[in-house]
Amino acid sequence: MGVRFGMDVAEGPPLSNLQVLTLILLAEVIVVPLVFSNSLTSNGYILVKNTALMLLGATVIMAIILGITGNWFRFPRRLIAPFIILPLSLLASIPATSNPGLSLNEFLRICALLAVFAVATCLAGSQEGRAVAYAAIFIASCISVLGIINFLTGAIFPAIHDSYGFPMFGATLGHDNFAAQYLITVIPLGLALGLEAIEKGKRAATWLLLAACCVMLVFLAITFSRGAWVGLGASVIFLVIVLWRKRRLIFLNTASQAADRTKRLTGAVFIGVLIVTTALSFSLSKRERGTSAIQKAEKTIDLSDAPIAFRLKLWRGSLSLLRQHPAFGVGCGAFALYYPSVRLPQEHRIAGARISVRSPHNDYIKLAAETGFLGLTAFIYLLGVSLWPLLKALRKKGSPSGIPMLVLGGAGAVVATLVHAFFSSNLSMPASSMMFAVNLGLVAGGLPAKGSRILTISKPSKVLVSVILAAVAALLIFRPISLFVADYNLRQARILIAKGDNSDAIESLRKSISSAGYYLVPRILLGNLYLLNQQAQDAIDVLEPAVELAPFWPQIQNNIGVAYLQRARHQNDPGSLVDAYLAFSKAVKLDPEFQRAWLNLGGTLDTLGRSKESQRAYRRALELAPDDFVASSKLAQSLMAENRPKEAQKVLEAALLKNPKNANLLNNL
After folding, report:
1. Domain that residue 631 falls in
2. 76 preceded by cis ω (within 30°)?
């Protein structure tokens, strides 16, 4: 491609260009964590923040294009290969997935993160990179203060009222676990820069960073995220070992003995306050759970503890996807679409939800399941190449170490994220994944490998690279905006449904689907409204594409089965009855504990004249919901149709013990 390389030189890009990159990266670390949704659901949190991440990512890519064409964007040669291989491995996973639109969005999100990483490497080692780190610490501290106030008072910030007057509460971080994932990407930066401030005798910076670390540690403790605690613990151990080995703990090598004593005392106070703050924070009780963080931590090694048992079953089922799709996976971002096909009944009982599992709570398993061994290997390759200069520097003997504290702080944050990634989905969440990209960039660019060269590109290659990057930037603008519009219309539809205005809600849902046809939620909701209106064919027209996009979601199979059943009754169509039977059968196969689908399957089998099978379906529905009088009534009616009144009587009498005043049961009896 005509790529040539020049040796590193002392001077960097022009200051104005460096300032542009700094401002863009500052916007990332400020806006993405702070932007909030008017929904406290994980969907709302992810969607709004991902929109900000991707739009700002487009800005980052456009700045990179200017840097490449202007010959001032610095990027280490050793990172070029993993930078190309990782996106290609993600693209390779898309063709086989059932929902390419969803996978394309995930691919673009990761491209935005790679752009953030590239700019962070460019700023690493400069004062601008340090400014980005300080901005991240400040924002995380502000969020922590809000989180602590929320914990103490129950207030949620900020509160929004939509145009219909419904209160829609939102927060910068929609869930405790999301907050914890984000905090562990920032706290190590605060610790490292605080120790550096002690070393340089900057008292004001020392105490400000101490205050920031304290509020972040308090908030982290009350999130009750044990995986994040483990991740931060690993980060602290890493920093202590490195600083002690390099004789930089409390900075023993100082010119003045008096200054040495002052710094030692300051360092002792700094660390002592952090330890006391952490200990006191862990003694706080979680009001709604009636337990303290210490009691929660004690259950970390208890395999019977519900969250741990849930993860063990979840990982076991998720690995089945990797065994079925080892090379390219099921498609980046498509885990939730395929997981129901391998979901274990034991995990379903623990989770208590049908289709809510969107992640295996393990970033490595998720990446492998979605992109196969190819994608996982590409990610590990990028990590290895990025961290290699630091690993080489850590192996060198001698004191003092030449590793900047900012690089060590970034490395500590990377360690925390990678350890927590074994128990959670840090790299899928917008704020934590963005900060991971920043931290990895600070490490990769802060210590250039010996002989590292900076990329310069010949004119023909500049054109090709610029065109590719411009296309990615355009998609990063169009795709999140279209999805955001779709979600806005979806939310409007939900408000209208709550007000009883189903006709306008249907129109809003149609607009949502036209904006993003791959978005499943509005399709499911619109199908439900059509079913309520007895518009069977309209429901089928909406739900059939949903089945193609998510063939393993039992809820969609059940809903389209109901639509086929309605059409069979309205049009006296035996073929639709068979279609309904097939859909309900698939629903219960995907989810053996889907009680409503078993009930619907029993009714369909009754209509088909297969009473023995229908009775088995009804009995299974009763096993799953013993108080369901509808299942009891239908089973009794099926038994009566076979002239088995005594058995029907027993079923009805058993149901009446639980529903003694139910008119339907009394009438059948």
Report:
1. 599-669
2. no
